[in-house]
């Protein structure tokens, strides 16, 4: 079993990714969604957590052997960056969503030297906005950002375009298409629902997928 399928099975098992195409969730934006995603649940499932962190370490070693520091996104990426850095024996820090209004007013927490090679650790990539903000903050501080690693990506066009514009690559352990297929194969959803899910992913604003 490859990493994508392993992590897909894990996320489905603990309902970190949960499909409900016939009873859509409503996002804060008002968009109807057939999927709920909360990768924080991996932290409370030790066997899944071990799969996730070992897989993140494996991907980073393979793609970015020169990495010197891992930086988590605040807040969801912090724990994953910390555990993965521990496995790899690397320094770790994280980037706040904004600078503190007290003390040293840090936005980057942890020691970071100009020129250090950094990999950003994120839990979820949708439109990629928050991850790219972190990349920009690190670049402004003089870091050499090698790339982003994440647990799961929707593969939405907006996110892919933003990553390309920012000249940064994201590598996810698994993605929406793989999880949808595994969900159908294992009986979480009906096989005919996969096409509806992909239609949602391709254009979340188009709600025609809701009608079978």
Main β-sheet description: 6 strands, mixed
> What series of H and E elements makes up the topology?
HEEEEHEHEEEHEHEHH
The rough form would be described as globular
**Which structural class is indicated by helix and strand composition?**
alpha/beta
Average pLDDT score: 93
Strand order of the largest sheet: 7-6-5-8-9-10
Q: Report the C-alpha radius of gyration, rounded.
A: 18 Å
Summed up, the helix count is 7
Low-confidence stretches: none
Helix content: 25-40%
Estimated share of beta-strand residues = 15-25%
Q: Give the N-terminus to C-terminus distance in angstroms.
A: 32 Å
Number of strands: 10
Oligomeric category: single chain
What are the main properties of this structure?
two-stranded antiparallel ribbon; about 20% strand; about 210 residues
Indicate the topology:
Blueprint: H1 3-13, E1 17-19, E2 25-26, E3 32-33, E4 35-37, H2 46-63, E5 69-73, H3 78-88, E6 92-95, E7 108-109, E8 117-125, H4 129-140, E9 144-153, H5 157-165, E10 170-175, H6 176-185, H7 193-202
Parallel strand pairs: 5-6, 5-8, 8-9, 9-10
Antiparallel strand pairs: 1-4, 2-3, 6-7
Helix pairs in contact: 1-2, 1-6, 2-3, 6-7
Explain the overall architecture.
- The protein is an alpha/beta fold and 212 residues long.
- 38% of the residues lie in helices and 22% in strands.
- It contains seven helices and ten strands.
- The protein has helices spanning 3-13, 46-63, 78-88, 129-140, 157-165, 176-185, 193-202; strands at 17-19, 25-26, 32-33, 35-37, 69-73, 92-95, 108-109, 117-125, 144-153, 170-175.
- The strands form three sheets. The chain has a six-stranded mixed β-sheet. A two-stranded antiparallel sheet has the order 1-4. Strands 2-3 form a two-stranded antiparallel ribbon.
- Helix 1 (3-13) packs antiparallel against helix 2 (46-63), helix 2 (46-63) packs across helix 3 (78-88) and helix 6 (176-185) runs antiparallel to helix 7.
- The longest helix is centred in the first third of the chain and has 18 residues, at 46-63.
- The radius of gyration is 18 Å and the shape is globular.
- The two termini are 32 Å apart.
- 37% of the residues are buried.
- The model has no long low-confidence stretch (mean pLDDT 93).
């Amino acid at each position: 079993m490859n990493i994508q399928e392993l992590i897909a099975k894990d996320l489905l098992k603990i309902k970190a990714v949960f499909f409900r195409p016939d009873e859509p969730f409503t996002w804060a934006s008002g968009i109807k969604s057939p999927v709920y995603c909360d990768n924080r649940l991996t932290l409370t499932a030790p066997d899944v957590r071990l799969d996730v962190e070992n897989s993140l370490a494996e991907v980073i070693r393979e793609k970015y052997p020169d990495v010197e520091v891992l930086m988590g996104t605040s807040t969801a990426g912090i724990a994953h960056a910390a555990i993965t850095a521990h496995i790899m024996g690397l320094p770790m820090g994280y980037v706040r969503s904004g600078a503190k209004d007290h003390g040293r007013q840090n936005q980057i927490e942890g020691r970071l030297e100009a020129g250090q090679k950094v990999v950003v650790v994120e839990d979820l990539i949708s439109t990629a906005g928050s991850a790219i903000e972190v990349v920009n903050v690190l670049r402004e501080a003089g870091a050499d950002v090698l790339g982003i690693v994440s647990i799961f990506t929707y593969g939405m066009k907006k996110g892919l375009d933003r990553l390309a514009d920012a000249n940064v690559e994201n590598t996810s352990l698994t993605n929406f298409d793989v999880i949808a297929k595994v969900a159908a194969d294992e009986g979480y959803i009906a096989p005919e629902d996969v096409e509806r899910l992909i239609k949602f992913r391709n254009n979340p604003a188009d709600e025609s997928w809701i009608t079978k």
